[in-house]
Amino acid sequence: xxxxxxxxxxxxxxxxxxxxxxxxxxxxxxxxxxxxxxxxxxxxxxxxxxxxxxxxxxxxxxxxxxxxxxxxxxxxxxxxxxxx
Length: 84
Fold this sequence. Notes:
Number of helices: 5
Number of strands: 0
């Protein structure tokens, strides 16, 4: 259900719905940091952006953006050789 649908159902604004169900900022930031780390790890293991997106249930655009940010920050994105 979208925020708009919930708002209509309960007679409040979509903004109120988003506020009520929003995560605490620190929880969101920790989850986002973990997702960034996982994106980098999966990229280094050789997965393509679409595969990473599917595995983490995010959009390929988000994966692309996070990898670009990592490159700009100087993070090592070189591929890890497969273990034998």
